[in-house]
Amino acid sequence: MSHIRKSSPTTAQVAVANLVAKLSRMPRIGDYGIDAAKTVMALRLVALCSKSGHDPMAELTKRLNDVGAAKNMLALLDRCGALWPEAVHVHRPCCAELSPDETIIAGMAQAASDGDHRAFDKVLDGFIPAAQREGLFAEALMVMETL
């Protein structure tokens, strides 16, 4: 009977396996800060209101506890919807994973919450042309300040 010796994975193999696992994992709402999570949840709420015929302003005001914050959030989300190259895809409110569109919006919100214009542009680079996103950072900053 021969003894087969198992070889342990090399450092490179472990690194590759970790990278594949990281790349295949869907981003989650908990990967971002509270302002980004509130923005994604507001997006999901607006989508639900749109489908059900409810007033998104009233629902956002209830959730954000502030009419001004709700107005600013709705304006930002409407602007994102107008700039998006196709319909914005959202998950159900109970889903912890983010859709690709929600991931971009969460990244935008996180960068604005951090006051990082460069990170904000990096999130949108190659997705929305720079000329079309003019003023979007300032609008996102205003929303984050009211949350």
UniProtKB/TrEMBL annotation:
<keyword id="KW-0804">Transcription</keyword>
<protein>
    <submittedName>
        <fullName>DNA-directed RNA polymerase subunit beta</fullName>
    </submittedName>
</protein>
<keyword id="KW-0240">DNA-directed RNA polymerase</keyword>
<dbReference type="GO" id="GO:0000428">
    <property type="term" value="C:DNA-directed RNA polymerase complex"/>
</dbReference>
